[in-house]
Amino acid sequence: xxxxxxxxxxxxxxxxxxxxxQDLRLGQKxxxxxxxxxxxxxASGNGPMRPVLALAPPDLRVLAQTNxxxxxxxxxxxxxDGRDPMVAHGExxxxxxxxxxxxxxxxxxxxxxxxxxxxxxxxxLAYLQSLQTR
Length: 134
Fold this sequence. Notes:
Elements: H1 2-18, H2 24-34, H3 36-39, H4 73-81, E1 105-108, E2 114-117, H5 119-130
Antiparallel strand pairs: 1-2
Helix pairs in contact: 2-5
């Protein structure tokens, strides 16, 4: 009986980190503030900083299309939060500091695997996913 009670308590404590609602509005505001300068307001890769970058920023509207129709969630998280440094930057992408750092939300990714990230990242991901071309 004690095991059942503890399992229930653990499940209740764990659920909020997995079942997090995404906020497109906050994701869009985050995008406009931190991403649009390079990727463009329309996410086409034609932001005002493009001419001074070593490599052109990608068109974020076609991430799923160029990944066999599936939004590359884990890859995007790792590139934005700095776990996978960007060659074009010579360092982790968030040159704007630790804004996207955090491990308070767990997202399910490929084949049931999970990745921990921040609430801000979850909202940004929701916005980027909403921009994908069909």
